[in-house]
Amino acid sequence: MKAKLVTRSQSMSSTKTRSREPEREIAYFSMEIGIEPKMPTYSGGLGVLAADMIRSCADLKVPLVAVSLLYKKGYFCQKLDANGNQSELACPWDPADYLRLLPQKVSVTIENRNVVIQSWEYRAKGVSGYKIPILFLDADIEGNNDYDRSLTYYLYGGDERYRLAQEIILGIGGVRMLKQLGYRSLIRYHMNEGHSSLLALELLNERKAEGGPGWDIDGVRRMCVFTTHTPVPAGQDQFSYDLVGRVLGDFIDFSLLEKLGGEDRLNMTRLGLNVSHYENGVAKEHGIISREMFPGYHIDSITNGVHSATWVCDSFKKLYDKYMVGWKSDPFSLRNALSIPGEEIWSAHQEAKNKLVDCVNAETGAGMDYKTLTIGFARRATAYKRADLIFLNVDRLLSIHKDVGKIQFVFAGKAHPQDWPGKEIIKKIVSVSHRLKDRIKIVYLQNYDMELAKMLISGVDLWLNTPQKPKEASGTSGMKAAHNGIPSLSILDGWWIEGCIEGLTGWSIGAAHEEKGIDERNADSLYEKLEKTILPMFYHDCQSWTTVMRHTIAINGSFFNTNRMVLQYVLKAYLD
Question: Which end of the chain is more exposed for a tag (fewer CB within 10 A), N or C?
Fold first, then answer.
């Protein structure tokens, strides 16, 4: 039987025929949600994507409620010294500045201890005023012991024991909190990555407690949706059953858990796949890779997007308001950007670029120039993203800079506190910036967050992305740039396989069917595109450059947005 989603407006209009319509029918669980720049409840792409999805659900009046953890001490604030050494500082914040503390409490059992949980509520408002509640679960309550109070302090902090305890709070505690708050009409539970997969165990226990003869796996499967974002096994949460036994206890029959989560270790991705009626990757290529990683599962794909109104900068908002009235509620209308005069697109871009250059110069004293081709790279600093690939052959880069056209670079991105290779990449880029400071201007901005991201993706001239294939599940930074007319120069992986129309929405690095990211070959391709195509166009053919900008908006901006993405989830996962 197909589910019927009922929005608040539909519920109100149908009160004459039905006594009560369900207000919320979908519960969306995510380990991180970046809904406010100054709320450190996110580390990067996963949390920002979750927030963008929630915003679009509010715009489209999808009856959803979201659940995450509070993280009272956040992820971390990044400090870089003169040599690029990263240190991690606390991110103090007061939840009461943004959230409303709810009076209801629930408890979960962790290591045979009763841990009490409360929740804070945020309401994300859509373009029509419809609001999506977001619940941030918090264990920092008097009566819990010090360790248990700390379980909602740090995002991606601690060891495996700490992480598993957090996932018990998110999955099991989240389902209980929804029930305690009166969300009785939920028909779908959407797990955004494997962190929340334990919610299915709570649903199984609930149904068994209601008097079922056995474990109603099929019944729970009809309720659950699972999205995987990880194209490599190392990125999946896995726990030994010894640890699970100590932390989770006898919450559920272990033979059932091994059947659903894997025989050797509890694999949260496999658990999510086994308890869901719909599973998807986050780009077409990622769907293929996920099916290869997990043979026998019908893993579909819904390519990620970004929330258009959030990521378009002020100068382009004015331009879109002038030529495409209603684009905020209907991002598909960005396809009409083809009718915007090139000189007005260039003017709007220059306003955003000047703002970025002024900010960079004020913070770093780098002396960046308004007219020089500015290339941006801002991602999590980790080895597979290869932020340093552009410097593989510094002599060739210098030759291009001298003989073809000037280039300057703006980098940003945090390395996880335990990611030593990622930290070394930051140091390498800072070292190169010192060596080349009298020739090529290079800056690495510290403490990358949503506010800095918005300035970067709209203020650079070209967005660079150089991951090792096939490790990029999707990627959304280039989508954000595209909404501001910024073309990408990127490896053909993740979303860019779908978004790249060579010379029209940007440019590719490397071959489409290259199985592994060979550094030298990729770097040669990168330099070739800069030398032969991009720099000559930027400096000598402004009309062609603005044509690329227009098509970037019209083709990629109009498609790679979360309004389209949410509609696909509704049709494929929520209504099915």
Answer: N
